């Protein structure tokens, strides 16, 4: 699996169990649409997925 490729990821919120699709190269942070917990954090221009990854979508 190429590391340079961007993917959409289905992630699960650790707090409320909500699943939503996020872009793993999002320029900004992504929060759970239900409870507001951070799912993707922006760190030094890179995104870091902090939620549980359920599925990688091409
Ligand atoms: Zn949540």
Task: Tell me about this structure.
The chain is an all-beta fold. The chain has one domain (8-57): N-terminal domain of TfIIb. Helix content is 0%, strand content 48%. It has no helices and 6 strands. It has strands at residues 8-12, 19-23, 30-31, 38-43, 46-49, 52-57. The chain has a 3-stranded antiparallel beta sheet with strand order 2-1-6, with no helix packed on it. Strands 3-4-5 form a 3-stranded antiparallel beta sheet, with no helix packed on it. A hairpin with a 2-residue loop joins strand 4 (38-43) and strand 5. The chain is globular. The N and C termini lie close together (11 Å). Bound molecules: zinc ion. Zinc ion binds at residues 13, 15-16, 18, 32, 34-35, 37.
List keywords for this structure.
globular, 3-stranded antiparallel β-sheet, 58 residues, mainly beta, binds zinc ion
What is the annotated CATH architecture? Single Sheet
- Based on CA inertia axes, which overall geometry fits? globular
- Per the CATH scheme, the topology name is N-terminal domain of TfIIb
Tell me the number of structural domains: 1
Strand order of the largest sheet: 2-1-6
The CATH class label is Mainly Beta
Mean pLDDT score, rounded?
88
Assembly status? single chain
Structural class: mainly beta
Which value, in Å, is the CA radius of gyration? Answer: 11 Å
Distance between the termini: 11 Å
Low-confidence stretches: none
| Helical segment count | 0
What's the order of the H and E elements? EEEEEE
CATH superfamily: Ribosomal protein S27
- Tell me how many strands there are: 6
GO biological process, one term: translation
Subunit structure: Part of the 30S ribosomal subunit.
Keywords: Metal-binding, Ribonucleoprotein, Ribosomal protein, Zinc, Zinc-finger
Pfam families: Ribosomal_S27e
């Amino acid at each position: 699996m190429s590391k340079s490729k961007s993917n959409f990821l289905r992630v699960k919120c650790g707090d409320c169990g909500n699943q939503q699709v996020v872009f793993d190269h999002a320029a900004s942070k992504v929060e759970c649409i239900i409870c507001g917990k951070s799912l993707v954090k922006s760190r030094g221009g890179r995104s870091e997925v902090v939620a549980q990854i359920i599925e990688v979508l091409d």
